Fold this protein.
Amino acid sequence: MNTLPPSVELNDEVLLKSFSQDDFEMARSSLLDRYQIWQGLLISTDEKTVITPDDAGHFRTQAANLLEQELKSELEWEQLKISAVLIYLLMEANKTALPVGDYALQEQLDQNKLPHANHYIVRKIIYATELLTLAEIKRLLQYQNLIIADYNDGNTANVSDSKSSLSGLQSKDGIYFNLEDSLQSIGITIAEKPQAAQISTSTAATPEPTVPLSGAETETVILRDDQRKTLVETLANSRLQIPVEIVAASYIGMNREHNEDGIVIQPDQNQVMVIDAMGSYGNGVTARDIFIKSLLRHPDNIEIAAAYCQKLYDNNDIQQGGVCILGVTIRKESDYFTIDIYQAGDVHAVLFDQQGTLRQETSDEAIGHQVMNAIVSYRTTIAQQANGWTNFGKLTRMKLHAKTGWRMAIYSDGISNLFHSVKLGEMIINKTPEQSITTISDELHEAMSKPKGYRDNSSIAILDFK
């Protein structure tokens, strides 16, 4: 199956409400009879079809197009169910984010420009070699070549076959190899152990000393505005202890009673957090504020803050609700930045390089009521496990690297349900951060003003690496 970029963002809750839970489970069972899940892939029983998490955008577009049709045949209803289940299974298969390799490896990758470096399977092989045996890597390459062959069958114009390689990789079982990538196929060659200076290592460079900022720049910023009518009206500027500048905004959305989103910037911790309360389940504002209280109590450890928050939910008898979060803590290390991401639920992050190329996008960890991850009370956990919810309170962790001139955005689903990553990139690249927020604010207002427009609370923080 070809990997297609998402052209339509789909509200998964709307999708799942289009048919019953029993229908969903029957379609899911039928698919799992025909596909196995392995290493984040869906592989058909005859091993002739491979679906990766990158294909989720294709199925979202397909489902969105079907939903727009007022009259649907029985076959089209079945296609809609299959698309919904495939989206869910792909998110389920990929619920653990891909590890991201060290900076030295990224530098080599940037120089060599592997033709398929952005494909899911190739990313997994490159960035998670220490988690894969050589046998697993070879099996993954078989599936990658199947995808390449399938794509090339429909794109006969790809006749050139330039080749690039990545050296110094080491599998989980200690075997060194080089990755040989071309437009037509990809393979590996076993290699000798590289010289020490050439081996890619995860040992971080010595961090540069932090120069404390003074005055208001070091103050904690908390955004949760209920009054102002556009995103840009809530704009706030901040700066971390390291050279990372931030603009952030959080507003109530259109025709909403409360803003249940929030943003917390803690310069002393080099930390930025976007919080999206699960308001449709009740107590959204309370759940958000309890999480903020927990974060401020444990500013240096997001995971402890999440665990403490769950205890507070129960102590305060929060019967419903919870929060989805995405927080980043950043370190300046020599000539690059290391970004630690902590995620629970459908809050998003994208990273663009200096040329505006999308370098990384986190996965949506929720699909309608099939929530895969959130910070919620124990009572809610027990009550909803019977409905198929899983992984409560477990933070997905991810590590990225950025260079000076790169830009990152973290944002709630009030934005992601209206704009996919490519569209968001168009709105924030080649603009000042303030201009970016203004553009997003205008686009949000226009989208929410449409009949039946999605009108959720919306929050975004844009980080500039200086």
